[in-house]
Design a protein that fits this description.
single chain; alpha+beta; disordered N terminus
Length: 142
Amino acid sequence: MKNKNTLVAVIAAAVASAAFVYAGEAGKSVVLAKSDLKWKAMGNAGVAAAPVSGNMEKGSSRFFLKYPVGLVTPLHHHTANHHVTMISGTVTLTVGGKQHRLGPGAYFMLADRAAHVAKVEGNEDAIMFIHAEAPWDVVMAK
């Protein structure tokens, strides 16, 4: 029960943070319940995103990103610097040859097109809250 309460608190904090950022941009407050999130397939391996504010294709944005159990991304980077807070699940993130096991409440920021691999561990989908500072893209390593 404690883990469930912690998860609810982390999700609430992420949504509240997103609403605060969005309010500064648009001049009005936004409150979203988990049930209000509109998940959209990202076109590969069960990955989905739920936008909160901004436009992922055109500029700075905030969104939830869901990786399914067992997903291992290929080595890739994003053009945008981005801030990530883990909401649920466990991801092993490999950046610069170093592995980081991250669970709910963990934070990381990737800048300067840092190449990385993410592997979803355990039996729970990984959900992250992301603030991308520029348009969101995924650039596979060659």
